[in-house]
Amino acid sequence: MSDTIIWISGATGGIGLGLAQTAPYPGARIINLSRRRHPDYETVLFDLTDPATYAAVGDSFTRELADFKGKRAIFIHNALYDSVGYVSETDPVEAAKAIQANAVAPLILGDLFLRAVKPGYESGLVQMSSAAARMAYPGTASYCAAKAGVEMWVRSVKQELADRGRSTWVTAVRPGFVATPGTVKMAQVSPRDYPAAAMLKEVLANPGPEVYTAEFAARQIWDALETRKDEPLLFFGTAVTASGTARA
What's the CATH architecture for 4-176+213-237? Predict the structure, then answer.
C-alpha cells in the first residue's frame, strides 16, 4: 500500500496531468477525477457541471480514507469548465453550467474531502485559482467571481480548521501563465466575446520566460507546497490582460 494518496481533478491534461506526473512522493497513488479515464491513473468519473456525479468523488474520499494508514492524503482541485461570453449574451443553460462547475463544485468537493480526512496523517487541500480572482477579464465574469470566491473560501476554512484544532492544511494556487490546451482554446475565441484572446494568441506565438509549461508549473507548485502550504495563497509568474502582462 502506498503511503501517499493524491486525488487530482482534471489529471487528464494540462496542469492536472503535470501535477500527477511530477508528484514528489515515490510510489504515490494518483486518482484522477474527470469525465474521461486516464490510461495511466485510476479514475473516478464525474462531471463538474452535474452535481449528481459529485457523490462518486465523495465516496472515493470516504472509502479510501476510512482505514488509511499512510503518511499523507492530498486533494488538488484543478479541473475547470471553459465558458466564454458576456453576461446575458450567452445561452442561459451554458451560463448555469459554468457557474455550477467553477463556483459551486470547488466548495462542495473541498467540503467532501475535509469530511473524509482523519487525524493521524498529513492531509491537505489545494484549490486551483487564477489571476482572474483579482483582475477583471470581460467575457469571463462568472469565472472571475468563482476564483475570487474560492480564495475567500480557503481563507475562511483555514480559520475554521484552526478553531477546531484540525491540522489539515488548505491553500489556493494561482499558477501563472501556463500554456495548456485550454489556454490555446481560449486564444481562439472571438475578441468580441473575450478581449484578452488577442493577447493570449500573441503571447503563445512568442512565448517568453513568463509562459510556463504544465510540467514546469506543476514542479513549482509542488516545491512551494513543501515549505509554504500553510499560506492561504501561493502565486507564480504573470497574468495576461488585454493591455499586457501583470503580476499574477
Answer: 3-Layer(aba) Sandwich (3.40)
Write the pLDDT tens digit of every residue in 38-65: 999 999 999 999 999 999 999 999 999 9
Residue-wise DSSP of 92-149: HHHHHHHHIIIIIHHHHHHHHHHHH--TTSEEEEEEE--GGGTS--TT-HHHHHHHHH
Q: To the nearest 10°, report the CA torsion of 224, 66, 3, 14.
A: -50
Domain regions of the chain by residue span:
4-176+213-237
- In a 10 Å sphere around its CB, with 0-12 CB exposed, 13-18 middle and 19+ buried, how is residue 126 labelled? buried
- pLDDT tens digits, one per residue of 121-149: 999 999 999 999 999 999 999 999 999 99
Q: State the Cα–Cα distance between residues 231 and 147, nearest whole angstrom.
A: 17
Greatest pairwise CA separation for the chain in angstroms: 53
pTM: 0.94
